[in-house]
Fold this sequence. Notes:
Strand order of the largest sheet: 5-2-7
Number of strands: 8
Helix content: under 10%
Largest sheet: 3 strands, antiparallel
Oligomer: single chain
CATH architecture of the domain at 4-73: Sandwich
Number of helices: 0
CATH superfamily of the domain at 4-73: Jelly Rolls
Low-confidence stretches: none
Amino acid sequence: MRHTHLAEDHAFIILEGEATFFDENDNKTVVKQYEGITIPRGAYYWFQSTGDRNLVLLRCGANLPGHTGDSRIDPKGDPLPGESAANKHITGVPVPGKFFGE
Length: 102
């Protein structure tokens, strides 16, 4: 779901697979393995896996000094908790014996 973080800049680095990021106007940026993208605070975005392999990414975030808690909001300005159904959260399922980088 399209959302923004009001108090956090963050970056994604694609370790495996491919992701397509969409901005508030649905302009897309394809990010391939070993590439990255930075999303500044206040920028609306969403992304999806678009490669032919599983998507493995590293997400790094930096909150504004003194900010605590989740600052994620939806396009209407309402809170959007990361693990909520509204955010289309899906709990990952570990696959025994499988590890990234094999």
